[in-house]
Amino acid sequence: MSFKVIKPGFLTTIQDYGRFTHGAHGLSQSGVMDEHAYGWANHLLENSPTDAVLEITFGGVELQTLDDCAISVCGADLDFKVNNQTALSWHSVQIQKGDVLSWTLPKHGIRAYLAVKGGFDTEVLFDSRSVNLRENIGSKLKVGEVLICDSSNIEFDHFIVPQYIPNYDKDVVLRLLPSYQYHQFSKAQRVLFFNQTYTISNANDRAGCRLNGVPIAIEKSKMISEGMSYGSVEIATDGLPIVLLKDAPTIGGYPKIGTVFSLDLAKLAQKQPHAKVRFELMDIHQAQKQRLKFNQFFGLD
Amino acid sequence: MHKIILAGEDSILIYFGSKINSALPKNIANFANTLKVEFSQLIINLTPSYTSLLVHYDLSKVNYLTFSAEVQNLLTNFEFSNTTEDSNLICIPVYYGFESGLDLERLLAEKNLNLDEFIEIHSDQEYLVYAIGFSPVFAFLGEVDMRIQAPRLATPRIKIPAGSVGIADSQTAVYPTDSSGGWNIIGRTVQDLSLKNPDNLNKFKTGDQVKFYPITREEFIEYGGQL
Fold first, then answer.
1. Does domain B3-77 have CATH number 3.30.750.24?
2. Are B3-77 and B89-222 the same fold in CATH?
3. Cβ–Cβ gap A224/B54 under 8 Å
4. pLDDT-derived band of residue B87, with 50, 70 and 90 as boundaries?
5. How many interface pairs between A and B have CB atoms less than 8 angstroms apart?
6. Is A226 close to B132, i.e. CB distance below 8 A?
7. A295 CB within 8 Å of a chain B CB
């Protein structure tokens, strides 16, 4: 055993790379919202790139360490502390039995990832450890719960050079592949879509990010339901976009204007409501090239 | 007739037709099985729906152009047949009553039917599983007889009890868990379709047949149903 939950926080769940192979059963992909921070969290501990981590949204979390353990915390700055002292993020850290880890409030970004050496050993449900609250698969962190992982002592000291730590306060440009019904939207509609700055609405969660802006007039608002890929952008009946994320339903019947490149979704995962977002066109070859590089770097290939 | 389009950096969508057609779910299921066999190393996830199949592939192993061409090639040479060897008939007991069927009384009035006639129409036929989605184990079944079709409620209910059987236009379905929804509720099954029983994951697949059979209030209670 390794951590006892003192404060569970607002929305804290175990996540891994995702739940694949169950699209035909209606199960969402699930998994971490920020694949970039997740990749680093495991990488800094020499873990498998698909090991399970704790996704901490907004903070409010306090954990008591029950065994010596190597950890890394990447992603948002939620004021991470060990025994009430500011501790290193984006860095492998050796902690001792009895240490108290805490995350209070979001300073930059909203989602932090706690990785432990060897990954969290929670129950595998339908081939993944990812919790999906919409599907009643697993549950949020609870007071008193014990999170199991191996005890570990590391010799190494791994970190990311500061200039590579993302700045989550920057406005996000979402690069969009012209997928699905892109060509069925008129030129005027696309101009309106690409030339405006949207703001993230309050109604955004792990299933989708709703954006506010000038509505796009759509003639045909419903179509035959079809499979929706991670990052596809629905234009709902009100003419506003919804970016479909990890916990989105598998199929849906709104027209989709395109699909956002996954590494830009990682940046979007760190944004608060009211943040500004723009879209820009990207071609498939560029997207595949960049993602392949990412996969190769983190050993996901 | 078949069309492949881009769906994302590591996914394509194959259209097998442009209209809903009872032959398509089996065709799509067959083709999905073939894809899994032919490209076992490349396929990450498959999501079939009414007229399409979303294919999520491993971009570390194959790129978009090569993979699309290979799928196109397989499609061109594929012999579509209307039968699947492993298509099942799933029978679901339903208590059709005003207590369990929250919209039943209104529908009877609107459709000018009595309860027995309504039950007979809904439970007489076998339905085809066209798609699975919305939530896990939620199977979209069709086609509902014209005489009992009804549009979704203008305002969806916040909570529909697990096991509720609903109608939305030409489709019918069972809600596997408590959830919000706008379908017209006509009855309830005692069968647990939730993932509390992990075997339910494989309860339905596209191309299967489903038949409802009516049970009495007493039977519903006896089998553990709650009202």
1. no
2. no
3. no
4. confident
5. 136
6. no
7. yes
- Looking at the fold, whether A16 and A151 belong to one and the same domain comes out as yes
A54 and A153 fall within a common domain = yes
CB–CB of A134 and B51 under 8 A?
no
A267 and A152 in one domain?
A: no
Question: What is the domain extent for residue A126?
Answer: 3-164
Tell me whether residues B134 and A137 touch, CB distance under 8 A: no
Share of chain A above pLDDT 90, in %: 93
Banded pLDDT at B146 (limits 50, 70, 90): very high
Would you say residue A1 has pLDDT above 70?
no
**Which is it for strands B89-95 and B52-57: parallel, antiparallel or unpaired?**
unpaired
Q: Which of B13, B61, B136 sits opposite A227 (nearest CB)?
A: B13
C-alpha to C-alpha distances, A134 to A119, A180, A255, B122, nearest whole angstrom: 24, 25, 23, 30
**A158 and A23 inside one domain:** yes
Is A179's CB within 8 Å of B8's CB?
yes
What CA–CA distance (Å, rounded) separates A55 from A130?
10
The yes-or-no verdict on residue B85 having pLDDT over 90 is no
Q: CATH number of the domain that A186 lies in?
A: 2.40.100.10
Characterize B74-113 residue by residue with b for buried, 16 or more Cβ atoms within 10 angstroms of its Cβ, and e for exposed.
ebeeeeeeeebeebeebebbbbbbeebbbbbeebbeeeeb
> A116 and A23 in one domain?
yes
Q: What is the layout of strands, in order, in the sheet containing A3-8? A: A85-86, A81-82, A100-103, A61-65, A3-8, A146-147
pLDDT tens column, B66-83: 999 999 999 999 888 766
- Spell out which residues of chain A touch residue B174, defining contact as CB-CB under 8 Å: none
Contacts of B59 in chain A (CB under 8 A): 288, 291-292, 295
Q: What local confidence, expressed as pLDDT, does residue B84 receive?
A: 60
pTM (two decimals): 0.94
User: Among B45, B23, B91, which Cα is nearest to A26's?
Assistant: B45
Min distance A230 CA to chain B CA atoms (Å): 8
Q: Which of A164, A190, A220 is the last residue of a domain?
A: A164
Q: What is the CATH number of domain B89-222?
A: 2.40.100.10
Q: Among A96, A130, A164, where does a domain finish? A: A164
